Amino acid sequence: MALDGDVGDAGRDRQISVLVIEDEPTIADMVALGLRYEGFDVRTAATGEEGLRLARGSRPHIVVLDLMLPGMDGIEVARRLRALGSVGIVMVTARGALNERILGLESGADDYLTKPFDFRELLARVRALLRRMGTLQEDVLRVGDIELNLATHEARRGSRPVALTAREFEVLAALMAHPRSVLSKEALLSRVWGYDFAGDTNVVEVFISHLREKLGDAPQQPIQTVRGVGYTLRW
Ligand code: CA
Fold it and tell me: φ, ψ for residue 183 (rounded to 5)?
């Protein structure tokens, strides 16, 4: 599948498009926000009809599809999406709706998730589906001389391996996923520690400080503070 969009220094600049069809605004917003942070091109629709119209126009790689929609339900939407061609469908169902889950899979959904779900679980399903579809070829993030292997959790700066804790790895991965953006401490908190984490942003400063030490200043310190805003990478 052709991947369009700007392919820059970062391996994550590939614009993979996701259409979120969900009538609950809080869930739609949470999913869209999270996927955009991860570098996906995201569109949202609150009804099946609107979703199908968008899908015809934008040909998304992945559709995150709520089963219970007003008007046309998710099963019918999935059937019609299938007719449009190659698309990965992750169906989202209410908790315990076993029959509906089966229907979802029979309708041609590739995977399903039960509400309430953790965003990271959805992200893992979407990535796994993209790999199965052959759209994601590898799980390596590269920005400048920093390389993160998301599959093996190995980090390198140039030829030097950098030993990171799991959280440090996630913080760096979040920065590398948006190499040209400034991420606020709050954004890093929600991205790495979870959306419901009501903690102190000081924890972010601590992890950034450890990461800076481990990455080192040669040839330059890649993690820069943007005063009053957050952190960004420079390379
Ligand atoms: Ca719904």
Answer: -100, 130
